[in-house]
Amino acid sequence: MALRNQIVGVIRFSFPATGGFAASRLGAGALEAMLYDPARLDRRFAWFEGITLPSLAAQTDDAFRCVILAGETLPAASRDRLRSLCADHAFLDLCLHPAGGPLSSAKRAFRQAVDGDSTHVTGFRLDDDDAVARDYVARTRARSDALLAGGFATGPTALAFTHGLSWNLRAPDRPFHALRETCAPSVACAMITDAAIATCVYRYNHRRIASFVPTFLEPGDAPMFVRTLHDLNDSGRTVPPHAEALETPDGLSVLAERFGLDPARTTSLMAPDPDGAGR
Asked: Which residues in 73-197 belong to E strands, given as ranges?
């Protein structure tokens, strides 16, 4: 049977996972109350619609699927808003799942998008406030196809790009830094598996994924991801000490040229952090 490698992404949108997040330690009621706070959801939608979604819509290779994983208990207005976005973008699907473990829910979301004639899936992870470069799908397909054809992905195999951009939404005076990660970042990280998806990229902490599965890292000559920092980051993100500051006009140019983002809209998403945390 000829190899047919499908590119599929999963984005968790305010999903009430029982593990994998700092907030998962909250009880079920408290977790959903935090995730579904109307003001918080408004901000998540602003970032998703202004950062993540435009970068996916701008892909030079549009033969991919991306599944939004959300909880069945997400408020009706938000579910309808996600369904409307899926109707507007052919590559988007919505998976509503009961609150539960992060791995089982992610695997179900990936499987929802798998075509019956696919032999393999290269499944990528993306947060709902981050972005991938316009050629991310094209490069991911080329690299994963080559690994499969060369016999280097006979089992689960990770693939990541380590050159990216850090964007601090709470530091409008100096928001952008160029960075190169020394391990697989959470953004622009994928895993090649067979179409049954016995496991997926969400199985492992991205910084330790190379300890468990073969991992291909590509530094690249251009930024492949945007990672945002703000006061709602669950993981306490910070600008790495080795990152290099970019002048704001240069950063905005990168967002427009590499990620297909609208400079005016992206500027409107930045605001000072009221707590000074910048996380």
From this structure: 92-97, 120-125, 131-132, 157-161, 163-168, 176-180, 189-194
* Residue 275, in any domain of the structure: no
Higher confidence at residue 186 or residue 237? 186
Q: Is 235 exposed, middle or buried (0-12, 13-18, 19+ CB in 10 A)?
A: exposed
Is the pLDDT score of 262 beyond 60?
Answer: yes
Beta bridge partners of 122: 7, 192
**Does 181 fall in a domain?**
yes
Q: What's the total number of domains in the chain?
A: 1
pTM above 0.90, yes or no: yes
Residue 253: what are its φ and ψ, rounded to 5°? -65, -40
Domain around 216? 5-268
Q: What is the CATH number of the domain that holds 139?
A: 3.90.550
Q: What percent of the chain has pLDDT above 90?
A: 77
Task: Specify if 14 maps to a domain.
Answer: yes
Q: Give the Cα separation of 131 and 256 in Å (integer).
A: 12
